[in-house]
Design brief:
Length: 442
């Protein structure tokens, strides 16, 4: 198991160094150069991870390394959890190996964990919270109760999905009749440490009229219409990512009493986001915290060894194909994200002479900043609200700047009110960009 752990880490680090930075990653990397307690889109943990890697920026894409190490640490904590809950019988080693292979070949938890998003710290601190919970079940000390609160607080500083930890915990305690085992006098310690370690997010939102909380509550929950494709797509994409045989094994498994908490932590995130899919489109990674628990449940199925072999064959082939898409230019058009990553590099070279440069979207601004190694900002008031609306650099200084937009994109109202004139410098059909020269008309 040690060889598997260290060899998989080495492979991840090599891949992280040489696979291009994606636009969303670059957006979080930009945050790390404008450190805040939290941000409009997400809490700040992902930015803090990128900040730790600043000294590696001159070397390929090694700025990802701190996040990749944290992702591998999540795997290590899950191995500890499995060691705690697996019975000491003749199937223990086999089950542990099956879990490790399911985890490492998962598109999100394996190779996908080199892509730096808020999900990486979310998964780590969520997993750490599960570990401390099972520890306090065996040893209900104030220290373990406090550690659980600290892990949950840092989880909340990673992504707001952290709040989903509480419902499955309560369901487990209630339905498994473990309620009386809770040391309620110590729960206060959990609450206080949780609030303490959540302070960065709470302070930032308090200073900004709780705008981030309000954005997240409306994102995916406020929609008066319903599109059946949202639900179908959600179910099919999660089934494909988990793999039907593994889902079947997890549903049919009969875990030991010490592992029955997995049932609640595995399925609650998927059920919750299915309810969200009744109101809006749900992205495939949103219930990611449920993936490791589903794999942990599945290993209790008697045929898990066979299922794991099939799983590894299928997702191993998929991983090889995904790497081929990166390496072989003729295959890159098969993935829009891969195509965009390489297009931004070319676009950056073309745009270097035009300064100061602003863009229409936060992804463009961030990706170009990363590739050009010079600041490019999204223009305030154009496209959707995001991080750039909260920094002064999103407003141009002086009477002249360049703006990269899509064709026929509407200009912000303040540009018209201030009588800015626009002149097209060039336009491209594929991809569809146009560069405008903006001049203030005094």
């Amino acid at each position: 198991m040690r060889r598997l752990f260290w060899s998989s880490l080495a492979i991840k680090l090599v891949m992280a160094a040489f696979i291009p930075i994606f636009a969303d990653e670059a957006y979080y990397w930009v945050w790390s150069h404008h450190l805040q307690l939290s941000y409009y889109d997400h809490p700040a943990m992902v930015a803090w991870l990128f900040w730790l890697g600043h000294f590696l920026e001159p070397v390929a894409n090694c700025v990802r390394f701190p996040a990749v190490l944290l992702g591998q640490a999540t795997f290590a904590v899950w191995l500890l959890i499995m060691s705690e809950i697996l019975p000491n019988d003749g199937h223990r080693v086999e089950r542990l190996w099956c879990f490790a292979l399911l985890y490492l070949f998962s598109p999100f938890l394996g190779a996908g964990s080199i892509i730096v998003t808020p999900d990486i710290p979310l998964l780590f601190f969520w997993t750490l919270a599960i570990y401390f919970f099972i520890r306090l079940e065996k040893s209900p000390t104030p220290l373990n109760y406090g550690a659980l609160g600290a892990a949950l607080g840092l989880c909340f500083c990673s992504k707001y999905n952290a709040v989903l930890f509480v419902p499955p915990l309560f369901l487990y305690l209630l339905l498994e009749r473990r309620w009386r085992e809770v040391k309620w006098r110590y729960v206060v310690i959990t609450i206080l440490t949780g609030l303490l370690f959540s302070l960065p997010v709470l302070i930032w939102n308090y200073r900004h009229d709780f705008i981030s909380f309000r954005f997240q509550l409306s994102h995916g929950f406020h929609n008066n219409s319903y599109n059946p494709e949202w639900s179908y797509d959600y179910v099919l994409q999660e089934l494909a990512l988990l793999f039907p045989l593994i889902v079947w094994a997890a549903l049919r498994a009969k875990p030991e009493r010490s592992a029955r908490f997995l049932i609640y932590f595995a399925w609650f995130p998927f059920v919750f986001f299915f309810s969200s899919a009744l109101k809006s489109f749900v992205e495939a990674n949103w219930p990611i915290v449920g993936f490791p628990a589903v794999f942990a449940l599945a290993v209790f199925h008697p045929r898990i060894r066979l299922f794991t072999r099939i799983y590894v064959a299928v997702f191993g082939a998929g991983l090889i194909f995904a790497l081929a898409v990166f390496v072989l230019p003729p295959l890159r058009p098969l993935s829009g994200h891969v195509t965009n990553a390489f297009e931004y590099e070319k676009l950056a070279e073309k745009l270097k002479p035009y300064k100061p440069l602003f863009t229409q979207t936060h992804q463009w601004a961030a990706a170009l900043t990363y590739d050009m190694k010079e600041p490019v900002y999204k223009l305030r008031g154009i496209d959707r609200v995001g991080f750039y609306e909260f920094i002064p650099q999103s407003l141009p200084k002086g009477d002249h700047f360049y703006l990269l937009t899509r064709p026929d994109e509407a200009m912000p109202a303040w540009l018209k009110a201030q009588h800015w004139e626009q002149h097209e410098i060039w336009a491209s059909r594929s991809p569809k960009y146009r560069l405008l020269e903006m001049v203030h008309d005094f």
